[in-house]
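Hi, does anyone understand the following?
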Amino acid sequence: MKTMKRSTLAIALIALVVVIAAIFFMRGGKPSDKAGDPVAAAKGKDGAAAPRPALTVTVARPEATELMLTLAANGNVAAWQEAVIGSESNGLKLAEVRVNVGDTVKKGQVLAVFSPETVQADIAQARASLAEARATAADAAGNAARARTLQATGALSQQQINQYQTTEQTAKARVEAAEAVLAAQQVRGRNTQVLAPDDGVISARTATVGSVVAAGTELFRLIRQGRLEWRAEVTSAELSRVAVGTTAFVVSASGAQVRGKVRSIAPTVDPQTRAALVYVDLPNVQQNTGVKAGMFARGDFELGRSTAPTVPQAAVVPRDGFNNVFILKPDNKVSQMKVQIGRRLNDRIEITSALPEGAQVVVQGAGFLNDGDLVRVVDAPSPPSSAGAQPARPAASAAAAK
């Protein structure tokens, strides 16, 4: 029984093989050429496999854009004028300090006060000396007047009359000297109050309550009128491009940006650096917390505007130390091209080197391409419009709509 079953199975297998071979030879030994056959779809008319695009990209043409002409420079931020406020009194004790660093003060405001007791005593002494001198002068004037009345009678000699007159003049001079001493002491009395010489901001303070200072000792520093300036260094070759009144945008190390105007240009050029200082007025120091005197800052002078070809920033690919763009060719292959870039405006970059006429540059996907790659071009997606946006429907209503 087992032998018969095996024989029957072998005969069936042989018959199946013969049927398959017959079908193959009847069809000529060729695979199916139907449209749905993946092998046929991958071949061209000549039987070779069709190339596949390396990437799907978007393209754009260079556009003429109005850009600002600028001149870059570096320099230090400094106070427009810094006043040194010192002591005019000698040997007095500092009794009170009324301001601190950063305070805004007005002209004539009291900044500090010295102890006035010593000066007041000197003023009282000077007044007493003046009163004594005036009394002496009045007595001398009376004696001189009586002597002049007796001059015609001959009761007094001419020598005695001259002595009375000389005494009168000496007394008058002593009165004037006493008045001068009193005025000096009164000035010392006024100097016991340290006053602000101008409006501004206190930038430094060395005054300490209780200290005894000598005349001329520095107590405060004042940024006059709260004004700062940017001292930009501009080379002699570019100095003629900057004029008084030119707008400048100053950027500090912290990133704070301030707009100022050129106030003056130095009349000389440094023989070592061949650069001249351009003084740019900055707004009030209290309003610009990111810009302080002593900072190093960079900036740009606004020289005008011009029109130049620009491309989207994504189209410029830095590679091997050069800036490149990919030009789309008619056969949908890309050609890598080195370019020179210039100014920037938002997301666009100026191309200063020449591009082929009517060129289209790859934008989206440019960073992933190589020279000669085949690409598939699609339209750039339009920015979403808030006006046309539809609110999302609940899941239940969406299901009901289906």
